[in-house]
Amino acid sequence: PANAAAPNTIVDAFKRSWDAVTLMNQGGGSFPICTFSYMYIDTDPNYLKDASGALLKAFAQFILSEEGQRMPAEFGFYPLPVGTGTLASPESTSLLKKARDAVDGLAPGGSPTAWTFESESSTRKGEGQGDYVFSGKRTAYADYERAKIVTDVASIKTQILDLQYNEVVQLHGSGTTNPQKVFWKVMDILEERARVPMSMSYRAVGSSTGQCEFIGSCSSGTIMNSPAYAPWNHFGSGDIPFSSADWTLLTNTNSKPFIHVPFQLGTISFFHSVPSSYGEIKLDACTLAKIFKTDINTWDHADIKAANPGFNPPAGAAIKVAHRTHGSSSTKLSTQYLNLACSSAWTLGTGSTITWPASTHAVEGSGGMTTYLQSNQFAIGYLDSGHGIAAGLSEVELKNAAGRYLKSSQADVAGVTAYVTLPSSAQADWSAVSLMNKPGALTWPITTFSYLYVRKDLTSMGRSGAAVKAFAQFLLSDEGQAMLPEFGFYGVSSAVKALANAGLASVKLASTAPAFIFESEATTRKGVGQQYYTLSGKRKTYAEIERATFRAELNAMVVKFNALKAQHDALAATMTTTYKYENTTTVYVGNPNKNDGAGHEEHEWIEQKADVALALALIGFLLAVPALVMSAVATHRIRFLGQSLNVHKTLGQGLFEEQRNPPGEQRDFGYPPPPPPPGGGGVGGMRQVKSNPFARVDVVGPGGLPTTAMPPPRA
Q: How far apart are the first and last CA of the chain?
């Protein structure tokens, strides 16, 4: 306002017309809509006279005094300018000085006694006690009470602010199971870095549930006293965009606009639990469609074997088909792929839920799918690639649009965005965005964005609204994007991040909710980093330090374990013996080139136990000297067992052989038995031992010399 007043030519005579005086749109640094407030005083002595006239003059003088000019700020106004511009240079010619001079020149009729002033800070001895003196030294108890109340209110405001700073800021979301571990880790990090206490949670329930809870309307379940179409969480998440109908319902019909925040790329894969000894499996969309429709229901079906010449499963081995339940983005994406790539074979439709054949098995969440595949041999299902790979599941080699078979780890996942046209903004309708079955030799056919769903107006959420924005910003930051590969996901392009960040910038927060800011671990922001709403990488917990130490030690153990296992496999590849045993636990030493085709499952069981024992031995070696001694013994026994029983991956040199014979019966395996040990004993070169499953087994080694091995596993 002071700048706005400066350019005007203010009339010197305050009795003249001011109708041409305007402070509107004056330019410079001024606000465009400004105005004076005026007192209108009739200067006619016949009107302005006696005691009332003197009092009116004193009233105007007080308003223009130094004390009076300090008061407008309390009520959102500004004093008259002093010391700047043409109205105040020099001060003796300022607008305020001219206004004071004009009021001092008023001459009330009747010659009344003029009022004078004594300020609170300056005593006027004798004069201040006069009848017509306004003295700042006089006050009423009401003034004291009001001043005390003002002080108390200010103190309470400070205490409330302190309580708000120490109040727990909550952040809760729900939706897709795929990025659940990413969310949990980021929430853990932000809680550690915050000065204000924060409590964050994410409920992994599937994309469809996340969407309906974000809308605030599900087919079943309600929130008590929840306003219509108010979200039941602070944010939602899914691996699919909202449908056009739901986007319109919120944005247009109910005036509840929201934004899609794509923060990562993920892939969906088909996984199976066929024992690895039968070979790798690759499938195209048509074969998968027939499997999930149960038109193909055994693993030795001609269509499967035609695509996998080296695949030899047991005859008639039934395929156990598993699918997600409760509305899953994985289901929607998988069915979309089958429909896009082989619509002639896939007739069950697409969507987050469909009607599956009765003989299939319903599982809940990515964890439920993982558990089912781990617990049931010869099963097949689908889930996000990162989750399945981390769990050690066997992935189907999938045929992409370019006709190439590959696994998700071999694909150029990020490259798929080159084939996608993005919407104009994060607030727009994203229902047409699809990364499915795009061209490209290394393109993975089932790829998707993972999204955060965020309301545009977060004012009703208070400080939780600011936490939503900070959470999304961290996911899009360089640090957040660098975390994704750990969980099998991929970062988004700079163009996608720019679109998402622009959407977050448009989000409206409550006036009482300061926005969170960030301080990285590498760069100190002096002063700023210590503020209440700074999420600082300089803050940590000791638990985080310990976890980092454990991860480093574990990684070192894995390296050493892999080196030891490589030595073990190399040694195993040179073995020249295998074994056979009877129900009487008589053990033969055999020929590795002989194979009767049986024993796959038990071979794998023994191999797994051997690997576990080796791992335990290695850990003992790394932890303590006494454990080293024990691990050496264990390693020796397992190594000998590997040599004696051929429990290893022989890299093509001899398969595990098993032959159970009725007690007392011998069979001719095509090679002569070893000579009997010195002193006789046994039948036909065999040494008989007891059938106690916990007994040692005497193995007749080369040259007929007895050795000792662990007992063979029992059926």
A: 94
Residue 197 vs residues 194, 310, 463, 541: alpha-carbon distances, Å: 7, 59, 12, 14
pLDDT digits 0-9 by tens, 471-528 = 999 999 999 999 999 999 999 999 999 999 999 999 999 998 999 999 999 999 999 9
What is the per-residue pLDDT for 298? Answer: 97
Q: Which of 215, 248, 249 is nearest to 233 (CA)?
A: 215
CA distances, 74 to each of 33, 140, 232, 395, 698 (Å): 20, 21, 41, 71, 100
Residue the block writes with tokens 């706005």? 4
* Inter-residue contact 687 to 586 (CB < 8 Å): yes
Asked which of 49-53, 243-247, 575-579 is least confident by mean pLDDT, the reply is: 575-579
CB 641 within 8 A of CB 710: yes
Q: How many residues does the chain have?
A: 715
pTM, two decimals, is 0.61
Taking the mean position of all CA atoms in its chain, how far away is CA 87? 59
In DSSP notation, 333-366 reads HHHHHHHHH-TTT--S--SSS----TTSEEE-HH
- The answer to whether 27 and 19 have CB atoms below 8 angstroms apart is no
pLDDT at 645 over 70: no
Q: Could you tell me where the beta strands, DSSP code E, fall in 365-412?
A: 379-384, 394-395, 397-399, 405-406
The mean pLDDT of the chain is 82
The pLDDT value recorded for residue 282 is 96
Give the separation between CA 54 and CA 114, rounded to whole angstroms.
6
- Residue 516 tokens read as 């969170």
- 239 SS3 class: coil
Q: In the numeric block, which tokens belong to residue 58?
A: 């004193």
For residues 85 and 2, give the distance between their C-alpha atoms in angstroms, rounded to a whole number.
Answer: 8
Q: Which residues partner with 322 through β-bridges?
A: 361
Residue pair 490/484 in contact by the 8 Å Cβ criterion: yes
| Lowest mean pLDDT segment, chosen from 10-19, 246-255, 381-390 | 10-19
**Alpha-carbon distance 344 to 287, whole Å?**
11
Task: Please tell me the distance from the alpha carbon of residue 588 to that of residue 572, in angstroms, as a whole number.
Answer: 19
Task: Give yes or no for a contact between 510 and 461, defined as CB atoms under 8 angstroms apart.
Answer: yes
DSSP output for 60-96: HHHHHSHHHHHSGGGGT--PPP-SSSTTSSSGGGSHH
Using left for φ > 0, alpha for ψ between -120 and 50, and beta otherwise, residue 671 falls in beta
Distance CA 194, CA 175 (A): 25
Enumerate residues 6+ apart whose C-beta is below 8 A from 592.
575, 576, 577, 578, 646, 650, 653, 654
